[in-house]
Design brief:
The complex is a heterotrimer.
Chain A (H helix, E strand, L loop, with lengths): L1 H15 L8 E7 L9 H17 L8 E7 L4 H14 L4 E4 L3 H14 L3 E3 L12 E3 L4 H14 L4 E7 L2 H16 L3 E8 L7 H10 L3 E5 L4 H12 L6 E3 L4 H6 L8 E4 L8 H14 L10 H18 L4 H8 L3 E4 L2 E4 L8 E8 L5 E10 L9
Parallel strand pairs in A: 1-2, 1-3, 3-4, 4-5, 6-7, 6-8, 8-9
Antiparallel strand pairs in A: 10-13, 11-12, 13-14
Helix pairs in contact in A: 2-11, 3-4, 5-6, 11-12
Chain B lengths: L1 H7 L7 H18 L6 H26 L7 H18 L4 H26 L6 H21 L10 E2 L8 H24 L1 H11 L1 H5 L5 H27 L1 E2 L6 H14 L5 H17 L4 H18 L5 H12 L7 E5 L13 E10 L2 E11 L4 E5 L6 H9 L6 E6 L2 E2 L5 H6 L2 E4 L11 H9 L13 E5 H10 L14 H14 L4 E5 L7 H17 L3 E5 L3 H7 L2 E6 L2 E6 L1 H5 L2 H8 L5
Helix pairs in contact in B: 2-7, 3-7, 3-10, 3-11, 3-12, 4-5, 4-6, 4-10, 5-10, 7-8, 7-10, 8-17, 11-12, 17-19, 18-19, 18-20
Chain C lengths: L1 H27 L6 H17 L7 H21 L6 H23 L13 E4 L2 E4 H23 L1 H11 L1 H6 L4 H23 L11 H14 L3 H21 L2 H18 L8
Antiparallel strand pairs in C: 1-2
The chains are: A alpha/beta, B alpha/beta, C mainly alpha.
Chain lengths: ~375, ~600, ~280
């Protein structure tokens, strides 16, 4: 009986929620604090916290503050279900803004649909994930691959060898790369995949060496497989131009000399020479000091995602989901990566940077490509 | 005696089963009402936890009861979930397709499990091998899913299909009712006579085989049926969560199931179910704050539990219950059964061994053994330690043991046959060290001996125990008939020996092999066994071969004596002939050792 | 030529990784499910040695000692109470693997770690350029294999261990301290796993879960090999060779599960595997 009373009381407070104007907007961040994404997750959380602090310092949105609620998704679908359930139905967040694995995103989408709240996905992915509630402010293959291939072609590469991990992203990226290479007159002389937890790339590397390819493009799962492949490539003496579609600056650094010369293509590189980026990095350093994580292509979209959501709230002038969703496709924000608008079928045209890893592990911007179009990701939206 | 027993041998008493049913109905009612009182988050999390709890119950049946440590249930679960999701994604939804999904979610795991079972369980396969294979299966299945492209959604999984049209509460009720049903069915099963076979296999698989039970077939059947149950859980999961992903099939999930089962308390059914729900629910609550610490705590708890509390948290509860209940469970009443009518005896001798040979590499343990035994004979096999007596016994009951020569039973060669098939041909074997089932009761052990003759019930525990008259005789002579409800581990050494003999006799064998049946027994017990053996052979026409050191005992009861020395048969004659033979005297005085 | 070298070096790496497991399985008849965790410990010893600024070659002895000491503790407190319950020993060591993984994560973080390359570059073998480090791994496997033959055939410890393998009860009656032999064997097995972990660092990523990927393959090889090092070498050569051939001519994805699936089938057909070799 007592329990019943308590529940009734709880329900009453929940219903009374909107009436209390001083309640902050809650931004749910389901992210892989454990599992494969745990390497990058802390930087994502920091980026979100920084954006929220900055917005709150300027008076918040619609007279209310923003607040971050983090939940661990274990970098997988099962954990994501728990995290989304907890955020959407227990913490009653107003929006979800986060990077996740594709499986985790897919697991969360039905829950977001039931909860009817906006979801800004801030991770690059293989593309074609469509839902009225979903917006994406990170890149898809159509944006990332062409700069790489164009550059290699200009350097004189005619034949290409493709190596990837056997999963949706790895295959999706290389499939697009193969089509793009064919279209631009190049030739793919080999395309090989290893299981995600595979450890021995030797037979593939031997094939690569005997194929006589001019250039190598890889798209493995992030972290371990990427490092393993690169180490084995270098120890086998492979020196042809090597573009890695899955490496981030941090991983490149931990690989040391093995990473030198690798080409990477990203929408964010710490070396971007703009005031917005420099201000962002300084603010991060100021807020977190020694604990500040190096910003990256996953954390910066998170930072901008929070700003985009705030802008959408402001434009919609309400918390009702429909107007906010509509506004998300219209507002833009000028952040470290440039001006971002998620105007193309819930995806965003992005400026892409081609970088090359230096001997000391830093990444030098070789070339930039302005406002690359994401293509037709969701023609029905 | 038999009159009174027949009176109480009516339909099953309305005891535990009735109470269990009432509990199940109460639990089901709770499941139906619960969504009214819980918030959405709890409803959602518990829905999945309860589906996982179904899996934990299947793991418990395999591991806790039968002793098959498996990480593979995740693969069968994933296969079921993917079968459903793939039908709904690629063929569309609708009642017909939903039914197809359900059907496939059962059939696919069942087919997979049958193949895995065949691969895993064969005569002589080790427990380790089964466990390692159970690790390989989820890895292979996961790899297939990764390689499946758009068919399986690869690493992204499948999402966006239309599942059963139920509310959150509806799925909670469905999952809850399924869990209650599975737990109820499992509890009824493990308490039934057939369910005790699983425990018997875990206790002593060799003894099961030598009681004519095809343990490999039982294990394969169990694996297959439970894969079907697991597949239904997969169907539920695919519908309730609206997404399937490779990690649902992975071995990490498989190990998680084992961890939940271990922490909940293996061998209790309810313990693993509660353990799965509790830990999964807790991890949903806690892991957001301390992801790594939480896993560390679970890992540590797991190791500590395995070492110090192998029966998990449930042991705290059941241990208390056992004390209250007292040692002796309700015992069934003994009922004699008519002697099985045998077909017309063939002309061939009962047992015919020709030029039998057993060698380890170049070392010959048995050489050129030729021996014939006819019905009604009581043959004693004597010889010093290391003469090959026990090896010879083994060659008579295991068609894969001998390296050369033939053994015929009723004129048919047993070469290549596994023990349970040979037992079915009428040979019973009693081992040197009493081989019984430590955690069963006396009555249950005896029922195992009859399992090959009359199919044990899957739903209930019979009130009567039907045994051949000679077996009842042994029980009565040794006083075991008054201890039918006692657990075997509480019996004395001599009582275990007698029990094993009764079990072997209950098989109604035509030939009975006994390896030192009187070792360690008192004089009185020895006399009893001697009397029983003589009755069996001279009055009932069985044949017996007896390995024995006590020459006085041998002299008293044997109709023939065979002397084995250094792997060779040196003498085969009547009691008189052998006792007065010089060679035997020399062997036994120790002069001819080495 | 490249193919032959690929087969030989792949077999060598598999052999080095599985020896520690085989040592323990042979004498204790227990499968150490924490084997993967010990590979990881070994690799993190290499990381620590690098951070201390020592020569990367020092990582080998350090990892052996650290692995052996931790293995000694594990045997004493976790494995010893469970000899009578071998399946529980599997579970306890598996749980220990989880704990070790989490401790490493708490200590070093989840990130991929940097280790100095031991032998970079390639060498020319009959006209083909081939990774020096893989050739070094081949040499290491041969040294470990020969070293072990000597240990088992030529020393007192080896003799005692062989006695325990053949008939433990008898060995005990003969006055051998079987408890001590098991303890020492477990330590050596764990030390070897640590050593193998260091050997892997130039070939794979170093992260808290790195050992897991090698675990199932090693289990299968050891199951096939039984108790003999010669059989293990043969199993590595045949199954590792099959893996390379399948990867090269069919698909690397199939290659990834070749060892496990082939071993399962071999054991089904011939339950004793190669142990009679």
């Amino acid at each position: 009986m007592k329990r019943r009373l308590l529940l009734t009381a709880l329900a009453a407070t929940m219903l009374a929620g909107p009436a209390m104007a001083e309640e902050p907007f809650l931004i749910g961040i389901p992210v892989g604090l454990s599992g494969a994404n745990s390497v990058v997750a802390p930087s994502v959380v920091q980026a979100a916290e920084l954006a929220v602090d900055e917005i709150n310092a300027k008076g918040g949105v619609l007279g209310r503050q923003l607040k971050v609620v983090v939940a661990d998704d274990g970098s997988g679908a099962v954990g994501a279900q728990k995290a989304f359930d907890s955020l959407v139905f227990q913490k009653n967040v107003n929006a979800i803004i986060s990077m996740e694995t594709s499986a985790a995103r897919n697991a969360g989408l039905p829950i977001v649909g039931k909860g009817k709240i906006p979801y800004i996905y801030t991770s690059f992915y293989e593309g074609h994930s469509c839902s009225p509630y979903l917006y994406v402010d990170a890149w898809v293959p159509q944006q990332q691959v062409p700069p790489v291939v164009d550059y290699l072609k200009a350097e004189g590469a005619k034949s290409y060898f493709l190596i990837g991990s056997d999963y949706a992203f790895g295959r999706g990226m290389l499939e697009f790369a193969r089509k793009y290479i064919d279209k631009t007159g190049g030739k793919v002389v080999g395309e090989e995949y290893l299981p995600m937890d595979g450890t021995d790339w030797t037979p593939i590397i031997s094939k690569l060496k005997s194929s006589g390819a001019d250039a190598l493009i890889t798209s493995t799962a992030g972290g371990a497989p990427n490092v393993t492949l690169t180490k084995q490539l270098r120890s086998a003496g492979v020196t042809i131009p090597y573009a890695n579609l899955a490496v981030d600056e941090g991983t490149a650094k931990s690989m040391g000399a093995d990473a030198a010369g690798i080409l990477i293509s990203a929408s964010y590189i710490t070396g971007i020479d703009s005031t917005a980026n420099k201000d962002f990095m300084a603010a991060l350093k100021k807020k977190f000091g020694d604990k500040a994580r190096t910003p990256n292509d996953l954390s910066v979209p998170e930072y901008e995602g929070v700003y985009l959501y705030a802008a959408a709230l402001k434009k919609a002038g309400t918390t009702d989901t429909r107007p906010v969703l509509k506004a998300l496709g219209e507002v833009s924000y000028k952040g470290p990566r440039g001006t971002i608008t998620m105007s193309k079928q819930h995806h965003a045209p992005l400026t892409m940077y081609l970088g090359q890893v230096q001997k000391d592990g830093s990444v030098k911007v070789v070339k930039s490509f302005k406002d690359v179009d994401p293509g037709d990701q969701c023609p029905n939206l | 005696m038999s009159d009174t027993t027949l009176d109480s041998a009516g339909p099953a008493r309305p005891g535990p089963l009735w109470r269990l049913g009432a509990l199940a109905i109460a639990a089901a009612a709770m499941m139906i009402l619960a969504p009214l009182f819980l918030d959405r988050f709890t409803v959602n999390v518990l829905t999945r936890s309860m589906i996982f709890a179904i899996l934990a119950v299947t793991v418990d049946l395999l591991w806790g009861f039968t002793g098959i440590l498996t990480f593979g249930q995740a693969a069968f679960f994933g296969a079921g979930a993917y079968a459903t999701a793939m039908v709904l994604t690629h063929m569309g939804s609708g009642p017909g397709l939903m039914a197809l999904g359900l059907l496939l979610s059962i059939l696919v795991p069942v087919a997979l499990a049958a193949a895995v079972g065949w691969l895993t369980f064969y005569p002589g396969s080790s427990d380790f091998y089964a466990t390692v294979i159970s690790l390989v299966v989820p890895i292979v299945v996961t790899q297939l899913i990764y390689s499946g492209g758009t068919w399986t959604g690869s690493s992204s999984g499948l999402v966006g299909y239309f599942g059963l049209d139920l509310s959150l509460g509806g799925f909670f009720r469905l999952a809850g009712l399924c869990l209650v049903a599975v737990v109820f069915a499992a509890l009824v099963f493990v308490r039934s006579d057939a369910g005790r076979v699983l425990t018997a296999i875990r206790n002593n698989e060799t003894r099961c085989a030598y009681l004519g039970i095809n343990t490999q077939a039982v294990k394969i059947a169990l694996t297959t049926v439970l894969a079907g149950v697991t597949g239904i859980a997969g169907f539920l999961y695919a519908n309730a969560s609206g997404v399937v992903a490779p990690e649902n099939t992975g071995f990490v999930f498989g190990t998680q199931l084992v961890v939940w089962t271990a922490l909940g308390g293996r061998g209790t059914i309810i313990g693993p179910a509660l353990g799965a729900v509790a830990i999964d629910y807790l991890s949903a609550q806690l892991s957001g704050q301390l992801p790594f610490l939480w896993q560390l705590v679970v890992g540590l708890m797991f190791v500590v539990m395995i070492i110090f509390m192998p029966n998990g948290l449930a042991a705290l509860v059941t241990g208390w219950r056992r004390v209250r209940k007292g040692p002796a469970a309700a015992a069934p009443a003994l009922v004699p059964i008519a002697r099985r009518a045998r077909g017309p005896a063939s002309d061939a001798p009962l047992l015919q061994i020709e030029r039998l040979e057993k060698a380890y590499g170049s070392h010959k343990v048995l050489e050129d053994i030729t021996l014939t035994v006819r019905p009604g004979e009581l043959v004693s096999l004597v010889g010093p330690n290391g003469a090959g007596k026990t090896t010879l016994m083994r060659c008579m009951t295991d068609g894969q043991a001998a390296s050369g020569g033939t053994v015929r039973v009723n004129g048919e060669s047993i070469t290549g046959l596994v023990p349970n098939r040979i037992v079915a041909r009428g040979i019973g074997r009693k081992f040197q060290v009493a081989s019984v089932f430590e955690s069963l009761t006396v009555a249950e052990c005896l029922r195992m001996a009859r399992a090959a003759h009359e199919r044990p019930s899957f739903t209930r525990r019979r009130d009567t125990l039907a045994l051949p008259q000679p077996a009842i005789e042994i029980l009565r002579l040794t006083g075991l008939d008054r201890q039918l409800g006692a657990e075997v581990s509480l019996l004395s050494h001599g009582q275990k020996q007698s029990l094993e003999l009764a079990m072997v006799v209950a098989l109604e064998p035509a030939l009975i092999l006994l390896d030192e049946p009187t070792a360690g027994l008192t004089k009185a017990e020895r006399t009893t066994i001697g009397t029983v053996l003589q009755t069996l052979t001279s009055e009932l026409g069985l044949a017996a071969i007896l390995v024995e050191h006590d020459l006085d005992f041998v002299r008293d009861i044997s109709s023939r004596i065979v002397v084995l020395h250094q792997g060779r048969l040196v003498l085969d004659g009547t009691v008189e002939e052998v006792v007065n033979d010089d060679i035997v005297k020399r062997i036994y005085s120790g002069g001819d050792h080495g | 030529m490249t193919l032959i070298l690929d087969i030989l070096t792949t077999a060598a790496i598999l052999f080095v990784i599985a020896t520690g497991l085989l040592t323990i399985f042979g004498v204790l008849k227990i499968i150490n499910f924490a084997h993967g965790a010990w590979l990881t410990i070994g690799a993190y010893c290499a990381v620590a040695v690098g951070q201390l600024g020592w020569s990367p070659w020092l990582a080998f002895p350090v990892a052996f000692v650290v692995g052996a000491v931790l293995g000694g503790l594990t045997e004493r407190f976790i494995v010893r109470p469970l000899y009578a319950r071998p399946l529980d020993a599997i579970l306890a060591t598996w749980g220990l693997g989880i704990v070790v993984g989490q401790l490493i994560t708490l200590g070093f973080g989840r990130d991929v770690q940097f280790t100095a390359p031991l032998l970079p570059g390639t060498a020319d073998i009959l006209g083909t350029s081939y990774s020096i480090y893989r050739l070094f791994a081949l040499g290491a496997a041969i040294v470990i294999g020969l070293g072990f033959s000597w240990l088992m055939e030529g020393t007192r410890l080896g003799l005692s261990a062989r006695a325990v393998i053949m008939n433990e009860a008898l060995a005990h009656v003969l006055g051998l301290d079987t408890r001590r032999i098991r303890w020492v064997t477990f330590m050596i097995g764990c030390g070897l796993a640590g050593l193998a972990g260091v050997l892997l660092t130039p070939l794979t990523s170093v992260d808290p879960n790195m050992g897991l990927a090698w675990l199932v393959g090693s289990f299968m090889l050891v199951m096939v090999a039984g108790q003999s090092f010669a059989a293990l070498a043969l199993a590595c050569l045949l199954l590792g060779g099959a893996q390379v051939l399948v990867s090269t001519f069919l698909s690397p994805i199939l290659g990834g599960i070749t060892v496990a699936v082939l071993a399962a089938i071999i054991l089904r057909i011939s339950p004793k595997g190669f142990s009679r070799v």
